[in-house]
Amino acid sequence: MPRFSITLQKAAYGWGQELSEQAIARRLARKKAEKTVGVVFLSLTGVCFLAFLLLGLPAMFDLLTKSASGFWLSLALLFSMMAFSHLLQTLETRQVMPHRMLGEPIPAIEPATQAACKDIAALFDPMALKTVDEAFALARKFGHAEVEPIHLFVASLSDENVGAVISRLPIQFEQVKDPLGRRLASRQLGAETVLSEQAEQVLLQAFVSAYTNGRQVVNAFEIFFEAFLHDTFMQELFFDQGVTQEQFNNMAAWVRMHEKMKERYEQFRKAALRKPTGAMNRAMTSIATPTLDAFSEDLTALAAQGRMGLLVGRENEVEQIFRVIEGGRQSAVLVGPEGVGKRAILDGIAALMVEERVPKVLEDKRLVRISIPHLLSGAEPQQAQDRLMHVLSEAARSGNILLAFSDIEQMTDELSTVLVDFLSRGASFAIATTTPQGYAQAVERTVLSRVFEKVNVPEPEANEAIRVLESKALGIEGKHKVSFSYQSLEALVMLSDRFLHETYLPKKAIELAREVALMVAKERGADASVTREDVEKLMAQKTGIPATRVEADEKETLLHFEERLHVRMVGQEEAVTAVSSALRRARTQLKSDSRPIATFLFLGPTGVGKTELAKTAAEAYFGSEEAMVRVDMSEYQTMERVWQLTEAVRKQPFALILLDEFEKAHPDVLNLFLQVFDDGRLTDESGRTIDFTNTILIATSNAGSDFVQEAVRAGEGVEAIKTRLLEQELRGVYRPELLNRFDGVIVFTPLTQTQVVEITRRLIAGVAKRLEVKGIHFRADERVIEALAKKGYDRVFGARPLRRLVQDEVDNAIAEALLKGEAARRDTIVLEPTGIRVEKAAAL
User: Fold this and answer.
1) Domain 753-839 in this protein, CATH class
2) Same topology between domain 124-262 and domain 284-456
3) CATH 3.40.50.300 matches 552-747
4) pTM beyond 0.85
5) How many CB atoms lie within 10 A of CB 717?
6) Cβ–Cβ under 8 Å, residues 202 and 4
7) Is the pLDDT of residue 434 over 80?
8) I need a labelling partner for 573 at 20 to 30 A (CA). Which of 73, 101, 424, 626 fits?
9) In CATH, which of 3.50.50.60, 3.90.580.10, 2.40.50.100, 3.40.50.300 is domain 284-456?
């Protein structure tokens, strides 16, 4: 008697097959005998028919005579009948997988209460049964007392589908082989081997999984999958290889979809024999529909031919549609952004209608999509109205048609009135699709709202989008002769969701998959594998965003980011440390995905390095100083100017945005940044969502500068100065909630004389670098550097005048010497207190 069972449609199912060496031998012998009997009967039938043909066809009209040909024909007929009877007997003993209806809850495994359970082993395919037998053989080989999930797991590894999982996930079999061996060696020994309770639950759960996924039989992959879920050791083994539970589940869904698609064509062909796909319904009442046929597409006919993709997820939306229609008074309109899969839902309903897995009101029906553009094409309003009236009239007379209208917002008011009148009379039902904007304009505020009930179709979450992409990947692989790793599909969804905000999942991921498959096929040829790196490369080309993960060399750069910033920055340690920490969090994906990379408010006097640090961060993080978008906020006195900023970010979504003189913007403009800092996006005047999540936002402000300078001269610490600024000095300039949104409010202190000298030294080094290109050497006397530093620093403007001073007193003098021909290649120009001196190089 089984220890566990499940109840499906009032019938109990359990594992009833004995596991022992003798039982396995008997099963193998019985299968061999059945196969032999069938072959013998068919062979004898063939021999007898051949003998009959050789001895003469006329005897077929004289079967009751004792002629030799009649005798052989009689035997041939007898053996063929016996072979057919043997086949029928075999089929009669075979169980059929119960048919799960849409929305039916998943059955639970419970302790068995009765011995009269249907044996689920009869629904295991040959490879699955072989897996169970090999698991028993493996346990016997090691002398184990029980067959456990680990034995089933190891035995299933030879299955083709299991091999596909291993190959597409980042698993090195050599690294899991030894731990598996050690785990097997640690199992309890026993004189006899029996099926453990955990293993029995694995087999029963494999049956439940096959049933839930609409499979006809249980295959070896389901055993592999459930054995994995029942053993934490194997889960940890995969996790150590970098495979998460979500990835494993999604990979399993990919395999199931592949198998489902292989089964589907045959299933639909059988269903098509019973399902009307033309004008004639099951009642054999044929109604000609020439106008309907001219302006429509029969989705059920396409589904019956196996030409529809699999509907992944969306059970809630489909159930809502069925509830609306079963109510008998309303039709349904699917409302969702472009690309979320509204068309796929229509295709999925057509497939369910072919399979007869729909409410009774939809049984024996055809789902026919009306083309609104074709109705309107080349027609005056009255002509288009007449066309629709003929289409609806034919649909009503046919009596077996469910109408579908994609993009119903394309309908004119006249056509809408005709459709509403038709549906209000209960002649048929309709399923329409539209976008949220289309619904608000063309349905919610029009007569269509009387007959259409809204069914929201949101953008799928990441895991569901990955599974949709898996269902499409097989076709893309076949077309371009490449294969996708699981990591590449995951990257297609995650990166497109993160960086492409003008379209929606799953459409944008599918389109990106087609592009990357074509790219890889061209670059590496047939049989190449599409990797995550390929997806990142394509994304970088499309958006300019370096989407690569942190690699070993980049880790070193990030760990020493302060040093990179200090190559150009002098002093301002707090600012450098705060910026570096934020960028490390962002690059290792520890930041929030719904906020900008980092947001800072730089406070302090003019000329202390606020803009210079922004330029340095742009170069260090984004790869170029050109990745900094500088915005003069004093020009933003009206809301209309904000759209100039959103357009700049839309064109350059991976950039550092420098909001200069932030306090001078209009208060309403400043309030918009509350949304930017929180949600990482703004909606522009055209209704487009502009993404700020890949930007660094640095607002600079001179507010409170006088206080900062006085406080520094008084010897106050930076933290005390910042506290006073936030609590008192800035209260009349910025709203507290805006200040609190910044990742960091950083105070830049006035430069010391030592720091000004160092800045001067670096400016002089820049002069030397520019001369080095011309083959001319340059050096400056330390006294000149100190003099320039003293002369170029201003209490009000900080070190800002210093750059102009170096230009006027150093660059100009060098330019004059070069124009006069006083310096040539290999010469050395020396800057001294008295001016420029040239040391001529020795002759070659």
Assistant:
1) mainly alpha
2) no
3) yes
4) no
5) 11
6) no
7) yes
8) 626
9) 3.40.50.300
pLDDT over 50 (residue 551): no
In the DSSP assignment, the letter for residue 108 is -
Cα 269 to Cα 723: distance, rounded to the nearest angstrom = 76
DSSP of 230-242: T-HHHHHHHHHTT
Q: How far apart are CA 398 and CA 286, in angstroms?
A: 7
Residues 6+ apart with CB under 8 A from 782: none
DSSP symbol at 798? B
Bridge partners for 369 per DSSP: 297, 404
Q: What is the pLDDT of residues 353-395, one digit of tens each?
A: 988 889 988 988 999 999 999 999 999 999 999 999 999 999 9
Return the half-sphere exposure (C-beta side, CA atoms, 13 A cut-off) of residue 179: 13
Question: In CATH, which of 3.40.50.40, 3.30.450.40, 1.10.3470.10, 1.10.1780.10 is domain 124-262?
Answer: 1.10.1780.10
Task: Give yes or no for a contact between 761 and 771, defined as CB atoms under 8 angstroms apart.
Answer: no
Per the CB < 8 A criterion, the answer to whether 257 and 467 are in contact is: yes
The b-or-e profile of 645-659 (16+ CB within 10 A means b, else e) is bbebbbebbbbbbbb
Instruction: Report CA Rg, the chain.
Output: 38
Residue type, 136: F
Angle at CA of residue 361, ends 359 and 365, nearest 5° = 100
Instruction: Compute the distance between CA of residue 153 and CA of residue 222 in angstroms, rounded to an integer.
Output: 10
Which one of 1.10.10.60, 3.90.1150.10, 1.10.8.60, 2.30.290.10 gives the CATH number of domain 462-543?
A: 1.10.8.60
User: H-type helices in 482-635, by residue range?
Assistant: 486-499, 507-524, 532-543, 552-559, 561-566, 573-587, 610-622
Q: At 528, phi and psi to the nearest 5?
A: -75, 155
- Write phi, then psi, for 206 (nearest 5 degrees): -60, -40
In order of 51, 74, 149, 447, 792, the CA distances from 62 in angstroms are 16, 11, 64, 77, 126
**By 3-state DSSP, what share of the chain in percent is helix, strand and coil, each rounded to 5?**
60, 15, 30
d(CA 745, CA 813): 42
Inter-residue long-range contacts of 796-803, CB under 8 Å, 24+ positions, other chains counted: 796/605, 796/606, 797/606, 797/607, 798/605, 798/606, 798/607, 798/608, 798/750, 798/751, 799/607, 799/608, 799/609, 799/751, 799/756, 799/759, 800/606, 800/607, 801/607, 802/756, 802/759, 802/760, 802/763, 803/763
Residues 5 and 716: their CA atoms lie apart, in Å, by 77
In which region does residue 589 sit, left (phi positive, over 0), alpha (psi from -120 to 50) or beta (all else)? left
For the stretch 679-685, contacts whose Cβ atoms lie closer than 8 Å and that sit 24 or more positions apart, written own/partner, are 679/594, 679/595, 680/593, 680/594, 680/595, 680/596, 681/501, 682/642, 682/646, 684/643, 684/646, 684/647, 684/650, 685/643
Q: 224 pLDDT exceeds 90?
A: yes
What confidence category does residue 99 fall into, taking pLDDT thresholds of 50, 70 and 90? confident
Answer yes or no: are the C-beta atoms of 662 and 601 closer than 8 Å.
yes
Q: Give me the phi and psi of 315, to 5 degrees please.
A: -65, -40
CB 117 within 8 A of CB 9: no
Q: Where are the beta strands (DSSP E) in 115-186?
A: 118-119, 146-147
Handedness of CA 45, 47, 48, 49 (dihedral sign): positive
Break the chain into its structural domains and give their ranges.
Answer: 4-93, 124-262, 284-456, 462-543, 552-747, 753-839
Measure the CA–CA gap between 9 and 144, rounded to whole angstroms.
37
